[in-house]
Design goal:
With 280 residues, this protein is of the alpha+beta class. 22% of the residues lie in helices and 25% in strands. The chain has six helices and 13 strands. The two termini are 20 Å apart.
Length: 280
């Protein structure tokens, strides 16, 4: 009996994702699943690339739509690349930090407790208030400096779902991991010629003139090792891990694990080549 041809689909949490569109274009017969008015009906043999979604708006019986599974390269079974419940942990920084911390992976000191925040401020530390625990980049980030709270032990503090203790900025890398391998890496550097750069090193984001570059970049071993561990412990097949590194302590710190990173150029090629290696 002939095996049924496995269909390849990609579903993105963002219907306007340019990276998902580019992946769909580069992988033969890889179609995007629409958010609305979709006629897609899943088959157990389908391969679905999950681009940052914690749930599907359609009924799905493909392996990995509910549980974390290993990618099956053999046979005719389908699978979800990046299972839903693994992505749901990665996109919530509170869950990510807690899981990685419990596994002994270094993350920023974090809390949701205002008393702890007051304690940090009263000791002269700057605190990062995160208004959106699921946002990436600089969205919803508020720097809380001790001088802005004269009486930090009794003053009214803004209520956010997550706070992290600010650390003096280290080198910052983005390590792209796919199934236990580092497939690409970049370092975040400021673009001095970019008019968006505000001379601010505390919040390093694209809208503030910071960019990722790979020119003359060699990430320390601790950085790549921590990134590989983070992706594995979250149960992901792939992820773009933002990692800080202190040359003084030789310690790597995980900031975020992205399940729908922006892709272009060589990084886009690295992902599509890996997808095709497993799919075709």
């Amino acid at each position: 009996m002939n095996q049924m041809k496995r269909r390849i689909r990609i579903y993105s949490h963002n219907p306007h994702s340019q990276s998902a569109a580019k992946i769909s274009e580069k992988i033969p017969e890889c179609l995007r699943i629409r958010h609305t008015n979709s006629k897609y009906v899943s088959r157990e043999t389908d391969i679905i690339i999950n681009w940052g979604a914690s749930e599907f708006p359609f009924e799905c019986n493909v392996y990995g739509s509910s549980d974390v599974v290993s990618i099956q390269k053999d046979g005719n079974a389908g699978y979800v690349i990046n299972p839903l419940h693994a992505v749901s942990k990665a996109i919530d920084k509170r869950k990510t930090f807690r899981i990685l911390y419990d596994w002994g992976i270094n993350v920023p000191k974090f809390t949701s407790d205002l008393l702890t925040v007051r304690g940090w401020l009263s000791k002269g530390y700057t605190v990062v208030g995160r208004q959106l625990s699921r946002a990436s980049g600089s969205k919803g980030i508020h720097l809380m400096k001790p001088e802005d709270y004269i009486d930090a032990t009794g003053g009214v503090l803004p209520q956010y779902p997550l706070y992290t203790l600010y650390r003096k900025k280290m080198d910052e890398y983005r390590i792209h991991v796919f199934c236990g391998q580092v497939i690409d890496f970049q370092q975040k550097k400021r673009s001095v010629s970019d008019e968006r750069w505000q001379g601010d090193n505390q919040i390093r984001s694209f809208d503030r003139g910071w960019i990722y570059t790979r020119e003359n970049v060699v990430p320390p071993r601790q950085v790549t090792k921590s990134a590989l561990k983070a992706v594995r412990r979250l149960g992901l097949h792939f992820g773009a891990v933002d990692v800080g590194f202190s040359h003084k302590t030789e310690q790597a710190t995980i900031y975020e694990v992205n399940t729908a990173p922006g892709l272009h150029g060589a990084t886009l090629d690295s992902y599509t080549n890996k997808f095709m290696e497993f799919i075709l």
